[in-house]
Amino acid sequence: MSAFTILFAFGLLSFAMRSSLLLKLLSLLVLVAAGYLTLNSYALPLNGFSLTSGVALFEVVLFIVLGAAILNEDENINVTQTIFIGTASVALLESNTLLNFIISFEALSVISFVLVANVKNATQASGAVKMFIAGSIATAFIVLGAAFYLFENHPLNSGLQNVETFGTLGLWLMLMGLFYKLTIVPMHSWAADSYAEIKASHAALLSGAAKTVAALAVFKTFSPFLLQNLEFNAPILVALAIVTMTLGNFLALFQKKVAKILAYSSIAHAGYMLLAFVAVKSAYASTSLLYIAIAYVFMQSALFTLIGNLKENASELSLEDLKGLGEKDKITALIFTVQLFSLAGVPLLAGFISKAVLVYAVVDADLPIVALVTLLNSALSVAYYAWIVKHVYFDEASLDYELKSLRFAPLMAQFILLGGTIYFGIFAFGVFKVAF
Amino acid sequence: MSYELLIFAPLALSLLVYIPTRNLGGTKYVALALFVYMFSKTIELYKQLPEHGYMLLGKFLEVKAFDFVLTLQVDRLSVIMLLLTCVLLILVTLSSWSLTKKPAAYFSLLIFFSGAIFGVFMSTNFIWFFIFWELTLIPMLFLVGIWGAEGRIYAAIKFFLYTHVASMLILLAFFLIYKQSGTFDMTLVKEAMLTTPALIWWLMFIGFAVKMPLFPFHTWLPDAHVQAPSPVSALLAGVLLKMGAYAMMRMVILLLPIQAEKFAWIFVVLGLLTLLYAGFMALYETHVKKMVAYSSISHMGLIAIAMGAMSYASLSAALFEMIGHALIISPLFLIAGFLHQKMNTWEMTDMGGVMQKAPYLSAIFVLAGLGALGLPGTMGFIGEITILISTIESFGSWMVVILLGSLISASYLIWTFRRVIYGEMSEGVKNANFSMNRVEFFSLLVFAFLIILFGIYPQTLFDEINQAFGVYFTGGTL
Predict the structure, then answer these.
(1) Half-sphere exposure of residue B245, counting CA atoms within 13 Å on the CB side?
(2) Which of A148, A252, B212, B292 is most enclosed, with most CB atoms within 10 A?
(3) Distances (CA, A) of B390 to B308, B386, B395, B475
C-alpha cells in the first residue's frame, strides 16, 4: 500500500460518486491517508520507484495543497482530476529511472490536458489549446532526446549514465522539452496565455502544483548529468535562468490583468527554480529547490484560486477591479497581500527563505554575480507586487466595485494555504533536515 | 518573560488589532500600553547589562545546517537604540492621538513596526537581522501610502522599492560573509573577516548608506518625509534613519575595522557632500516640511563624517548626535504637519506670524530649530561640537569646514523662523484655529524637555554612550 495506490484507486472510484459533499469528504480523507503513508516511507511498490525524505516532505505539502484545491472546487470532475494529478505527481516524484520518469511525466501532462479541457468559454478553450500544442511539442523533444540517448546504448530503465556526444545531445533535447513545461524562456510563450486564460483553479493546479512537481523531478533525474558536464552545462543554464527571470519580471510589470501578472510571475519563478540547476554543485542546491517548490506551491495555488473566487471570469480581473478590496473585505485583502508579499520575498514568509537559500546556493557555487542579478530581479518583481497592493489598499473603491466575497469552504482553503506560507516562512528546520 | 516575545508578540498583536471589522478607536490605548511596557522591559534589560560586551537573551528557531538561528543578544549600543525607539514610539503614539482616519489599522501598523524594529536591534544573526530590517518596510509602506498627503502613493512605492533594492546588496554581503566565515553570527565573525574582500564592505556600505541616507543615495527620503503623515515622518527620521546609522556603525565600522579604515575617506567625502548639499537644498526650500526633511538629511551627513573618523570620541559623538537628531527633528516635523493641517498650505511664504496666535507651539518650534542649528544649551550644540572636536583630532584642522554646515543650517532655520513664526501675520494664520489636542501638545513638551535636559546634562548620556564603544577600542584604536 502506498500513497500512489490509494490515490489511484480512489480516483477511479470517484467517477461513480454523485454526492459532491461525500466526494469532497472522502477525497480529503484519502489525502490524509496518503500523507500518513508517505510519512511512514511507503513508496510506490514497483521497480524503479523510491521515496527519499525530501520527496516525502514535498508529497505531504502537495497533499495539503490538493486538499485546499478540493475544498475550493465546485465540480465533481475537477475533484477527480485533482486526485489524479496527485497520483501522477507521486509517481513522477518517486521515479528513479529515466523510463519511469518519462512515463510519469507524460501521465501528468495528459491529466493536465484533460483538466483544462473542461472549458466554459472561448477564452478558456484558447488557453487549453495553446497548452496542448506546447505540451505536444515538449513531448516530441523528450521522445527525440530519449532516442538519441538510446542510440548511445544507454538503457532507459536505470538512472542516468555518463554520456558522450549523442547522449549529451539527447539529454539536452529532453531538457529542452522539459523546459517547455517548466516555462523556461524561450519555451515560455504559451504559459503566459494559458495560465491567464484557463480556469483560475486549473491554473492554480498547473502553475502551482504540477510545475513544481516537474521541476523537482527533473532536478532529481538530471542533476547527475548536469554535474558530469558542468563546465558546458552551467553557462547555458545561467543564461536561460537569467533571461527567464528577467523577462518574466519585466513583462509582468506592464500587465493590467492580475492573471497575466501571475502568469508572468510564474515564468520568472521558473527562472529562479532553474538557478538550483545552475548551482547543482552546491550542497544547498537541492534544499533550495525543495524550499522554493514548497513555498511556490502554497503561494501560487493560493493566488490563482483567490482570483478565481473574486471574479467568475478570473482572466478578466484587472488591477482596477481590485480598488477598494482592502476596505470592503479585510480578510481576503490581507490573505491576498500576504501571499503577494511572499512571492515578492518579504521576510517571515516562505517566499523569503526559499529565495534566500536559493541565492546562497548560487553564492556557494561561486557565482556571486548571478546571485546579485537574482536579487535585483527579486527587487524588480517587488514593483509589480507592490503595484497590486497599491490598488488593494491605497486606492479608493470604484463605484462599480463588484468583487465577490469568499464563501466558507474557499476561505478555509485560503487559510490552509496561508498557514503553509507562514509556517515555512518561520520554521525552516523541517526542510533542512530532509535529504532530497 | 522570554525576550523573543518583545518581537513576536507585537507582530501577532498587530494582526489581532487590525482584523476586527469595526474601527476601534481604543487601539491607541493598546499601542500606548504596549510601548510603555516595551520601554519598561528595555529599562530592565539595561539594568542587567554586563559591564562590557553582549548579553545573550536566548536562541530560537535553530536551523543548524544553515546557521539560521534567531540569536537575541544585546549590548549597550543596542539597548541605547532600543530606549530611543521606545521613547519615540510613545511620543509618536501620543502625537497621533486625535487621528480619525482608520485608527485601528494605523496603530496596528505602529505595533507591527515596534516588533520589527526590536528585532533589528536585538538580533545578532545576520539573516534574522535582515528579516527584521526588511519587515520594518512593510508598516512604513502602508503608513505613508494610506495616511500620507497627495503624492503619497508615489512616495510610498518609491521608498519601498529604493530601500528594498539596497537591502538586496546587504543580503548578498551577508551571504558572502557566511561563505567566508561559516557563520551568520555577527558576534563571531570579526576574526574571520579581517581579510574580507572589499566587495563585502562596499555592498554593506551602499546598502546602509541608502537607509541613512547619504548623498547620492538619499533621493527616496525627501518624498517619503514630505508625503508621510507628520508622526510617521518623525518615526522615519527618528528611528528608521537611525537604523541605517546603527547598522553602519555596527557592521561597516565595528565588524570590518580594517576595511573601514581603508575607506574612511568615503564617509568623510559623502558626509560632507550630504551636509552641504542637503543644507543648500533646505536653504532653497519654501515648503516647510521639505525644509525640515533636508535639514534632517544634512544632519545625517554630520553623523557620517563622525563615523569616518572612527575614533572612540567620534563614534560617541556620532551616537549622541543620532539621539539628538531624533529628538530635535521629530518636533519640527510634527509642528510642520500641524501647521499644514490648520492652514492647508506647506508654503512658508503663506505663513508668518504664527507666534502671535500660537505662542507655546511656536516656542517649541523655535527651540527645536535652535537645537538643529546647534545653539548652546541644546542637544544639537553638544552633538555638533563633539563631532567637530573629534574629527579635528582625527583629520586635522581643515575639518572646521563642518562649521560651514552649521552656518548654512543657521541661515535656513533663522530664515524659516522669520517666515513662519515671526513677521507679519498672514491671512492663513489669521483664519486658522491653532488649538491642539492636549495629549499631542504634551508629546511636544516632552521633546522640548529632552532637548534641553541633554543639552545641559550631556554627561548622563555620554557615560552610557562611552561605555557602549569602550569595548571595541583597545589602546585607542579599533
Answers:
(1) 34
(2) B292
(3) 11, 6, 9, 17
Using CB atoms, pick whichever of A347, A368, A382 lies closest to residue B161.
A382
ipTM comes to 0.93
Q: What range defines the domain where residue B321 resides?
A: 263-478
B376 burial (CB, 10 Å; 0-12 / 13-18 / 19+) is exposed
Say what the pLDDT of residue B190 is. Answer: 75
pLDDT band of residue A172 (cuts 50, 70, 90) is: very high
pLDDT, average across residues A288-314? 93
Which single residue is written with the C-alpha cell 485546499? Answer: A68
Average pLDDT over residues B258-273: 92
Q: Could you tell me the sign of the dihedral formed by the alpha carbons of B446, B448, B451, B453, in that order? A: negative
In a domain, B9, yes or no: no
Q: How confident is the model at residue A384 (pLDDT cuts 50, 70, 90)?
A: very high
Amino acid of residue B257:
P
Which DSSP state fits A163?
A: -
Cell numbers describing residue A180? 517547455
**Cβ-defined contact of B138 to A341 (cutoff 8 Å):** yes
Secondary structure of A40-106 in HEC code, one letter for each residue: CCCCCCCCCECCCHHHHHHHHHHHHHHHHHHHHCCCHHHHHHHHHHHHHHHHHHHECCHHHHHHHHH
**Domains identified in chain B, total number:** 1
Distance CA A64, CA B37 (A): 40
Which residues of chain B are within 8 Å of residue A285 when distances are taken between CB atoms?
A: none
Q: With beta carbons less than 8 A apart as the criterion, state whether B424 and B353 touch.
A: yes
> Does B226 fall in a domain?
no
Distance between CA A229 and CA A207 in Å, rounded? 30
Contact B172 A368 (CB under 8 A): yes
pLDDT of residue A145: 95
| Cβ–Cβ contact A368 with B under 8 A | yes
The pLDDT, as a whole number, for residue B475 is 56
What's the whole-number mean pLDDT along residues B157-173? 94
Angle between helices A122-151 and A189-197 (to 10 degrees): 140
Within a domain: B395: yes
**B309 three-class SS:** helix
Q: Is some CB atom of chain B closer than 8 A to the CB atom of A291?
A: no
Which residue blocks in B212-353 are alpha helix, DSSP H?
Answer: 220-227, 230-235, 241-247, 257-262, 264-284, 288-309, 312-343
Q: Is B141 on the interface with A (CB under 8 A)?
A: yes
Looking at residue B64, what is its pLDDT?
83
Amino acid at the residue B262:
K
Residue B184, phi-psi category: left (phi > 0), alpha (psi -120 to 50), beta (remainder): alpha
* Side chain identity, residue B66: F
For residue B55, the cross-strand partners are B74
How many residues can be counted in chain B? 478
| Dihedral sign from CA coordinates of A378, A333, B155, B221 | negative
